[in-house]
Design the sequence.
């Protein structure tokens, strides 16, 4: 039946089943590939994958580095710093555009234009403007997410019913209080949703930049190991990336439930 | 000028582009009255209400509020005028108790105070929530203090909205079709709530005090207007503007202003008794084929002088 809800246990079982199907399909593919070529590294078997994971976690004999550790550190710091700056700028710009006509007129046209430029295509611009160090990756993530996120925040602010503002004014709210006590609190759940949606693109921009100009980080390592067809390292890295994205999303969803308990049922 | 005059709309004119909405609207409201404003859809009732709230600046004319310090011109929204809309009155992110306490918070503290004098603010907050709970209990909503707006029925929401406004003790309470989306039973219950407030006005006046609640209710329901109001005002674009020497329709103006029967909260609603006055209002304000002189049915002040008003008008 269309839209008929299913029980929670059924939903959990189906979820687990889908993951098991994925693993089984991988196992089958790997087996088939290894029957053709026992030395194959493109679809590594479980033993090869285990060796690949150990390789990423143990100190490298030549450099002495633990790949996973240095890459997590490099990519994580770039991503968090970029996300923080991009989010701060976007929320500020979105709020100002949504609240004040002058800011809307001034900021919306350039942001609408910039939102259409894929940051990966503009990599050379970032490279020229800020070099190839940490600043470039941070700028890439921050400016990559800022235009779209700012527009999302702006649209959410515009959707706040004017009656709420009138009402709060008759209750004695100042202009600052209208923004903080009414607008921000009303759009907070949409704001968290918008940030959740931007984590994926932010990771895409960063990994792409690391693949092109990085000397450390997830993108760099994946590119390097892919060229060597060393997929027993690439797949664990992809798994870590997926787990990171999933973890961030889970944290933000939990934050939304905690900070906006009214939202989940209100929005249904 | 009457001592108990509270609000005055002085010759309000308003247009939206080329569309004339309000023409020479003059309305004086006395302290303690419940004035029901009726009129056809799109005649400008909400525009007039917005002018009183201060969210709309009329092209011409002014709204004056009278208090201890004399007349004050309305320039923008203020805490002396509370408003309840049909929808979007309660903040979705606050529960009933917090919604009612919102006004106390905004009125008595600043954002800086709440951020930097947090211990003191916590004490005040407790007091605000306590006041809100007491008011909700008076509105028979003691069980619903923790509910969010989406968890409440339409009737509960509107009662919370009225409490949210009344906790501020506004000079005038403005209701913009507040019961329009409610079922008949809930509507009647809320109408009786308004009559309870009116009964408190009458009691305060009888004891020589100041009636605490002055209400202007916009409604399209004539029975409701006659039932809850001690006065009914009809705003309409259907009047004889040609007879007044005008070439094009100048917009809506007040075409009906008369006292209405006063009901006690526990009294039975018998709308049959209101039939004659209801038909008269329908003719004066709602019938596009009946274009009369705009002063023909404006007899409120005459009636008050003749002692024909009930409740606080008597």
Sequence:
């Amino acid at each position: 039946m269309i839209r008929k809800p299913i029980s929670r246990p059924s939903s959990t079982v189906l979820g687990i089943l889908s993951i098991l199907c994925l693993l089984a399909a991988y196992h089958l593919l790997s087996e088939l590939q290894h029957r053709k070529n026992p030395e194959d590294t493109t679809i590594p078997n479980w033993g090869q994958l285990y060796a690949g994971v150990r390789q990423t976690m143990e100190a490298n004999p030549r450099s002495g580095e633990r790949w996973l550790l240095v890459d997590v550190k490099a990519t994580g710091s770039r991503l968090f710093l970029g996300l923080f700056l991009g989010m701060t700028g976007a929320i500020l710009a979105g709020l100002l555009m949504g609240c004040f006509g002058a800011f809307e007129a001034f900021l919306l046209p350039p942001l609408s234009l910039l939102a259409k430029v894929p940051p990966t295509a503009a990599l050379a611009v970032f490279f020229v403007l800020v070099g190839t160090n940490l600043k470039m990756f941070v700028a890439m993530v921050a400016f990559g997410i800022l235009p779209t996120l700012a527009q999302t925040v702006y649209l959410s602010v515009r959707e706040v019913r004017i009656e709420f503002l009138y009402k709060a004014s008759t209750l004695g709210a100042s202009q600052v209080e209208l923004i903080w006590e009414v607008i921000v609190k009303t759009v907070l759940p949409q704001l968290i949703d918008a940030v959740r949606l931007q984590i994926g693109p932010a990771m895409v921009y960063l990994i792409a930049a690391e693949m092109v100009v990085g000397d450390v980080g997830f993108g760099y390592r994946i590119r390097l190991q892919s060229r060597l067809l060393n997929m027993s390292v690439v797949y664990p890295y992809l798994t870590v990336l997926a787990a990171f994205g999933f973890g961030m999303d889970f944290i933000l969803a939990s934050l939304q439930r905690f900070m906006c308990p009214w939202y989940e049922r209100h929005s249904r | 000028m009457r001592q108990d005059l509270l609000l005055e709309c002085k010759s309000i004119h308003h247009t939206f582009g080329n569309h004339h909405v309000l023409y020479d609207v003059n309305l004086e409201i006395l302290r303690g009255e419940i004035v029901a404003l009726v009129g056809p859809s799109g005649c400008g009732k909400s525009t007039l209400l917005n002018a009183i709230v201060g969210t709309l600046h009329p092209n011409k004319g002014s709204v004056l509020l009278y208090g201890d310090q004399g007349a004050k011109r309305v320039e923008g929204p203020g805490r002396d005028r509370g408003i309840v809309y049909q929808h979007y009155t309660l903040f979705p992110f606050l529960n009933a108790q917090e919604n009612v306490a919102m006004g106390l918070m905004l009125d008595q503290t600043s954002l800086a105070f709440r951020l930097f004098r947090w211990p003191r603010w916590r004490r005040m907050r407790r007091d605000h929530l306590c006041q809100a709970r007491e008011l909700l209990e008076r509105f028979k909503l003691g069980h619903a203090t923790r509910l969010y707006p989406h968890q409440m029925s339409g009737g509960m929401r509107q009662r919370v909205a009225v409490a949210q406004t009344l906790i501020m003790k506004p000079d005038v309470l403005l209701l913009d079709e507040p019961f329009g989306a409610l079922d008949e039973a809930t509507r009647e219950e809320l109408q009786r709530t308004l009559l309870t407030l009116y009964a408190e006005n009458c009691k305060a006046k009888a004891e020589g005090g100041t009636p605490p609640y002055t209400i202007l209710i916009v409604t399209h329901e004539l029975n409701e207007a006659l039932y809850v109001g001690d006065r009914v005002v009809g705003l309409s674009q259907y009047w004889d503007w040609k007879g007044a020497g005008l070439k094009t329709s100048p917009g809506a103006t007040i075409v009906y202003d008369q006292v209405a029967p006063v009901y006690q909260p526990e009294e039975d609603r018998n709308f049959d008794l209101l039939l004659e006055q209801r038909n008269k209002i329908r003719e004066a304000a709602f019938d596009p084929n009946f274009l009369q002189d705009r002063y023909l049915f404006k007899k409120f002040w005459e009636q008050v002088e003749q002692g024909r008003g009930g409740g606080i008008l008597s």
Summary: Chain A has a mean pLDDT of 92. Chain A has eleven helices and no strands.
